[in-house]
Amino acid sequence: MSGDTPVLRVRGLQRRFGGLLAVSGVDLALPAGRVLGVIGPNGAGKSTLVNLISGHLKPTAGSVLIGDTDLTGARPWRIAHAGVARTFQIVKPFRGLTVADNVTVAVMFGPARIRSRARARREAERVLERVGLGGKGDLPPAELPVADARRLELAKALALRPRVLLLDEVLAGLRAAEIDPALRLIDELRGEGLTLLVIEHIVQAIAAVSDEILVLHHGAVLTQGPPDEVLGDARVIEAYLGHRYTRKNRS
Amino acid sequence: MSQFLQATVYGLLQGGLFALIAVGFSLVWGVMNVINLAHGAFVLVGAYLAFELNRRLGLDPFAAMVPVAAALFAAGYLVQRGLINLVVKAPIFITLLLTFGLNLLLVNGLILLYSGDYRSVTTGYAADGFALMAGVRVPVGRLLAAAVALLLTLALVAVMRRTRTGLAILATGMDRGAAQLMGIRARHVYALTFGLAAAMAGAAGAAVSAVGTFSPADAGRFTLFSFVAAVLGGLGNMYGALIGGMVLGLVEAWGGQLLPGTLVNAVAFAVLVIVLAVRPQGIAGRAFYSSRVEV
Amino acid sequence: MAEPSTAAPAETSAGPVRGRRPRLPAWWPWGGGILLVLGCLGLQSQLYTGQERTVTTVFMFVALAAAWNLIGGYTGYACFGQVGFFGLGAYTTVVLMVHAKLSFWVALPAAAVVAAVFAAVVGLPLLRLKGHYFAVATLGVAEGLRELVTNVPRWTGGGSGATIPSTGDRAITPWLGNDGFYLLFLGIAAVSAAVVALISRGRAGYALRAVNQDEDAAAAMGVNTTVAKTAAFAVSAALTGAAGAAYAFQQVTIYPQRLFDVDITVLMIVMVVLGGAGTVLGPILGAAGIAIASEYLRQHLPEAHDLTLGALIIIAVVLLPQGVVDFARDAARTRDLSLLSNVRRYRL
Fold first, then answer.
1. Domain region containing C239
2. Name one Pfam family in it (chain C) (predicted).
C-alpha cells in the first residue's frame, strides 16, 4: 500500500444514544505511520469513537473504512481480522486465564490464526517481552499492578499484529516514570508503520508523540491540527477549563 | 362476543392474582439479582398457613393475609440473613441452585405434612357472583382477590418510593457498593427485601387459598408465572409485575378460547421466549442489556 | 491437538487462576480416561442387576453433566432448558423408530443432529441474552417443547406416552438388555467426556473461556463470539440429545412429563457446579457423587428423599461454591482446607 492512501478513513461518523449525540459528524483520514492524538473533556465521545471504529458499537450514520474495505457496522472480530486492534479504557483481562494465555487468545484468533498452541504460546511470550511483561506470563491478571494491567491490555492488542491500533487511555493511572517507556513504545510502533489513534487525558504526554491532535467536544470535532497549534487554541482551553479561565488568561 | 368478554374479565381478575404472586419475585430479582426458585413454595406456605388458620380458628382467608404475611416476613428475613446472603456474590447458578434446594425442601416438607392432595378454603361468599352484563359473570372471590392484589401492589410501590426503608432498598439494588458507602447496611436491607417479598408471596398464597384449590405440586407453576410476569413487565419498572401479570392473565384467558387441548399451557412460554428475543427489556422496562461497552 | 511441549499452558478454568504447576505427562488425562473406561468394563461382571442399573444411570448423568458443562461451565451461559434437548432426542428416536421404522442405530445419531440443529436455531437469538435472561428463555423453550410434544399425540402419543416396539417381530432393533445399555451409556459418557476434554485443551477451549470471561474483549481479540457460543450450544445439545435417545430406547415407554422434567436440568447443573464448572473431571465426579447419593437416599429414606436432597444441595452450594475440583487444587496450593474460607468469598 502506498504511503499516501489512508489506512483508516472515517466519514461523517455519528452515534446517538436516545436523545444524546455522543459522536456526530467525525471525519478522519490516517495514513500509515501516523499518530493521531484525540483529546477532549470527559463525556466528549472519545471512547465512543473508539467503540464505533472497533465495531463494539454500531454507528447511527457515517462510515468506517480500513484500507479500501468498508467495515461500517461490522462485528468486532471482522474488524480485528481486518487489522484493527484496540485497548479498553477499563482493562478487560480474561480473569480465569493466565497473563500468557490472555495474549495467546489474541495470537490464536487474530489475523495470524496460529492454530498450534505451542507456537501461539511462543509468540505470546515474545509480545509480553516487548511490552515489559517478560516473566510474568504465569501470573493471574488479578495479581498485576495497574501499570502491568495496562501493559497486558496493550500486549493483547499488539498480539493481533494490527495495522491500526486504537489506544484508549493506556497511560491512565501510570506514574511519571512509567509514562516515558510507554511513549517510547508508541514512537517505536509508529516507526514500524503502524497507524495509531491515541486517546489520552494527559495532554503534554500525548502532544509529544502525536503528529496531529484532534479535539472532541460534545461529540463533534472542535479542531484538528499539529499539537502546538491546537493546544494554543483558545477554544480548546475554553472547552477544557471553561469561560472564566480563558478570559482571565487573556487579560 | 360475550364469550370473549367473559374471557377478558376472567383474564383480568386472574392477572391481578398473578401480579400479586409475581411482585415479590420481581422485587428480589431487581434488587439482589437473585432468581428465587423457591418463590412458588413461599406462596404455597402462605396458602397452607391460611388453610390452617381457617381450619383451627375459622379465620377468613382474606383476614388471614395479615398474620400470614407477618409470619412469612419473619421467615423470609431469616432465610436471607442466614442463607442467601452467604452466596449472594457468587455466580448466578450458585444462587439458582441454593433457591432450588430451598424449593425442594419446602415443597417436600409440605408434602410430608399435608400429602399431595388438593386443598381449598371454603368461604360463604367466594363462589357467589354477579352478572356484569348478559352472559358475563364476575365471581366475588376472584374480584376480591384481584382488588386486594392491586391494592397490595400499589402499597408496595408506595412503600418503596416514599419510605426511608424503601429508598434504601432501591438504592442498594442500583449500586450495592455505593449504598454501603452511604451507610446502608446491605445485609439488613437484603434481608428486609426478601422478607417483604416473602410477605407478598404469603398474602398471595392466602388469596390463592380463597379462590381455588392448591397442592404442593403448584409451586413450580407459581414460580414460573412470576418469572413470566416479571420478564413481561420488565424489571426496571416498579409496576412491571402488575403489567406483566395482567398481560399473562389476558393472554392465557384468550389463548384458552382459541387453542385446542392443553396447548394454552404453552402460551405463557411462547410469549416469554418471544418477548425475550424481540424486546428483552420487557413491555414497560428499561433496557437491561445493551450493546454499550463504555461511553 | 497441538503438539504437547514443555510450553504447554497450565490447565485453566473459569474458576480461580492457578499458576503453571509441575505437570504430569501430557498423555495422562487420556491414559487416565482409558483406564477409567476399562475399569468400568471390568466392573460390570461384579454387579448385581440392580447395581448395574444404578451405574448405568450414573453413566447417563456423566454424559449429561459433561454436555451441560460445555455451555454452562466453559461458555458461562446458564442453560436452564437443557432437558429440552434430552426430550427432543428421545422423541426424535420415537418418531424415527415407530413411524419411520428406522433402526435405533440410525435414530441415535439422528437425534443428536436434530438436537444440535434445534439448539443452533434457537441459540442465535437467545444467546444474545445474558445471565438470568438466558436461563429463563431456555427454560421457556424446554417447557414449550414439552407442551408441543404433548399436543401432537399422533406422532408422540401425547400425555399418555409413546412405546417403542422392542421385542418380538415388531421390534426394529431388539432391546439391548441391562448389559447392552450399560455398555451403550458407558460409551456415550466416554464420548461426551472426550469431546469436552478435546475442546477444553484445544483452540476452541480458549475461545469459550474468553467468551465466558469477557465477551467484548474476546470479540476484540478476533474471536467470533456468535459462532463460538452457538457451536458450544449445539455440541452440548447434540450430546444431550444422544443421551435422550438412548434413554428413550432403554425405557421403552416414555412420557413428556418425565422426559422434559426441569429437575433433570437442575440435576445436571448441581452435578457440574459441585464437581467443578469448566473442568473436565469435575462433572464426572459431580455426576457420580450426586447420582450415587441420590440412589442411596431413595433406598434408605424413601419418604424424605427429595427433602434430604434439597438440604444437601443447600449445604453443598454454600460450602463448596467453586466445586470439588477447584477446591482441591486451591487447597493443594494454599494448604487451606477450611470450607469457611469458601463461605467468606461470596458472603455479603
1. 44-261
2. BPD_transp_2
* Contact call for B102 and C270, based on CB within 8 A: no
CB contact under 8 A, A76 and C14: no
Least confident interval from A34-38, C105-109, C210-214, C319-323: C319-323
The tens digit of pLDDT for each residue in B20-46 reads 999 999 999 888 888 899 999 999 999
Supply φ then ψ for residue A12, to 5 degrees: 55, 35
Alpha helices, DSSP H only, in C301-339?
Answer: 305-319, 323-334
Is C25 strand, coil or helix? coil
C216 Cβ under 8 Å from any chain B Cβ = yes
Phi, psi at residue A106, to the nearest 5°? -65, -40
Cα A231 from chain centroid (whole Å): 20
Q: How confident is the model at residue C62 (pLDDT cuts 50, 70, 90)?
A: very high
Question: In sequence order, which residues have a C-beta less than 8 Å from that of residue A36 and are 6 or more positions away?
Answer: A28, A30, A196, A197, A198, A210, A211, A212, A213, A214
Distance CA B222, CA B205 (A): 10
Q: Which of C133, C147, C266 sits opposite B269 (nearest CB)?
A: C147
Q: Assess if residue C21 is contained within a domain.
A: no
Q: Is the pLDDT of residue C3 over 60?
A: no
Encode pLDDT of A134-173 as tens digits: 889 999 998 899 889 999 999 999 999 999 999 998 888 7
Look at residue A138 and give its three-state secondary structure.
coil
Asked if the Cβ–Cβ distance from A118 to C20 is below 8 Å, we say no
Q: Are C221 and A141 a contacting pair at CB < 8 A?
A: no
Tell me how far apart the alpha carbons of residues C337 and C345 are, in angstroms, rounded to a whole number.
Answer: 14
What is the arithmetic mean of pLDDT over B56-83? 95
| pLDDT tens digit sequence for B232-286 | 887 656 688 888 899 889 988 888 888 776 777 777 777 778 877 776 665 554 4
Question: How many C-beta neighbours within 10 Å does residue A41 have?
Answer: 15
Decide the pairing of beta strands A61-66 and A69-70.
antiparallel
The CATH T-level fold of domain A6-83+163-250 is Rossmann fold (3.40.50)
Q: With respect to residue C64, please indicate whether it lies within any of the assigned structural domains.
A: yes
More confident residue, A248 or C100: C100
Instruction: List chain C residues with CB under 8 Å of A110.
Output: 221-222
Mutate to test the interface with B, among C71, C216, C317 (most CBs of B within 10 A): C317
How much is the pLDDT for A237? 77
Q: Are A90 and B295 within 8 A, CB to CB?
A: no
Q: What is the mean pLDDT of chain B?
A: 86
Q: Where are the domains of chain A?
A: 6-83+163-250, 95-161
C317–chain B Cβ distance below 8 A for any pair: yes
Chain A and chain B share a number of CB contacts under 8 A equal to: 21
Q: Tell me how close the Cα of C110 comes to any Cα of chain B, in angstroms.
A: 26
Total tally of structural domains belonging to chain C: 1
Domain assignment of residue C248, yes or no = yes
Cβ contact C144–B93 (<8 Å): no
- Nearest C-alpha in B relative to C344: B86
Gap from A11 CA to chain C (nearest CA, Å): 22
Task: Give A244's pLDDT tier (boundaries 50, 70, 90).
Answer: low
Chain B, nearest residue to A22 by Cα: B295
Instruction: Say if C226 is an interface residue toward chain A (CB within 8 Å).
Output: yes
End-to-end CA distance of chain A: 50
Q: Is residue C344 part of a domain?
A: no
The verdict on pTM exceeding 0.80 is yes
| Whether A58 and B295 lie within 8 Å, measured CB to CB | no
Give the mean model confidence (pLDDT) for residues B83-87. 92
Q: How far is Cα B156 from Cα B239, in angstroms, rounded to an integer? A: 10
Can you name the residues that pair with A168 across neighbouring β-strands? A199
**Architecture of the structural domain at B2-278:** Orthogonal Bundle (1.10)
Q: Show the cell assigned to A107.
A: 495470537
What is this model's ipTM? 0.89
